[in-house]
Specification:
Distance between the termini: 143 Å
Largest sheet: none
Order of helices and strands: HHHHH
Length: 261
């Protein structure tokens, strides 16, 4: 007989020892706006993504809780539905990450903290799903063994049954291995998405520096043009003054020559 134990870590005094009733009981978010204006369009976009995520996560929480009261095929279908919801939530996480990186200041910090909390909650729910899936497998195996004891079979049938059971265990192991590889790949993908978002911020900062450099270069070019124009005017004035002085000298000499005669 298998036993499963769940441990819940208290967060900010909100979660207690009872089972979670959904994300709303774990994370209570207060939406605050500045007194001088409305929330920015980026914050509103993030809030929209967050509301969709929280609604889907609440649906998943309800589905996981309902799985505990189901048996057989009903439990299998319910777990498959939960898997679909988990896939949707992981896709939504990408949108949340991107929308959060577009925020700035305290809004971005708070958004990243909430996203991390959502990821932890999703991880907890997937752990519960795994435990319920294992319980369903154990229950199915027990039912197979009980049927076998009630209906004794021939040695040949027992060998066939053992082969089928070995194939089932092998297939289950391969599926679990593939699931682990998928999760590892997803974590790598999330890491790449985060790195791309950071690279985008770096590129934006570099672009801002380039723009400022272009402005400085434009101002320097304007100053150089003004200096060139001033130099040209100075040269023209010098030439004009030289001509005037030359004419004055000639006139002076002519005057002196006339006086001497």
């Amino acid at each position: 007989m298998s036993s499963f134990f769940f441990f819940f870590q208290a967060e900010d005094g909100i979660r207690d020892a009872q089972e979670s009733r959904g994300l709303g009981d774990v994370y209570k978010r207060q939406v605050s706006t500045q007194s001088t204006g409305k929330p920015s369009s980026l914050a509103m976009s993030f809030d929209r993504y967050e509301d969709e995520y929280r609604s889907t996560l609440q649906t998943l929480t309800t589905e996981v809780q309902s799985c505990k009261n189901k048996r057989g095929d009903d439990k299998t279908r319910a777990l498959k539905s939960c898997d679909n919801l988990v896939g949707e939530l992981r896709e939504m996480q990408h949108d949340l990450d991107i929308a959060a990186y577009d925020l700035s200041g305290a809004e971005k910090s708070k958004a990243m903290q909430r996203i991390e909390g959502y990821k932890q909650e999703l991880l907890r729910l997937t752990g519960e799903m795994k435990s319920q899936r294992n319980a369903a497998t154990n229950e199915e195996n027990r039912s197979l063994f009980s049927e076998d004891l009630e209906n004794p079979q021939s040695e040949e049938q027992m060998l066939v049954f053992d082969k089928q059971r070995a194939k089932l265990h092998s297939g289950t192991h391969q599926l679990r291995t593939a699931l682990g590889e998928i999760r590892d790949t997803e974590e790598v993908g999330l890491g790449i998405m985060e790195q791309l978002a950071k690279d985008r911020e770096t590129i934006q900062r570099v672009d801002g520096n380039v723009s400022r450099s272009d402005e400085s270069l434009s101002r320097s070019s304007g100053i150089l043009r003004r200096m060139r124009n001033m130099d040209l005017r100075a040269r023209i004035i010098t030439v004009v003054l030289g001509l005037i002085l030359f004419i004055c000298v000639i006139v002076f000499l002519l005057v002196i020559a006339g006086v001497i005669q």
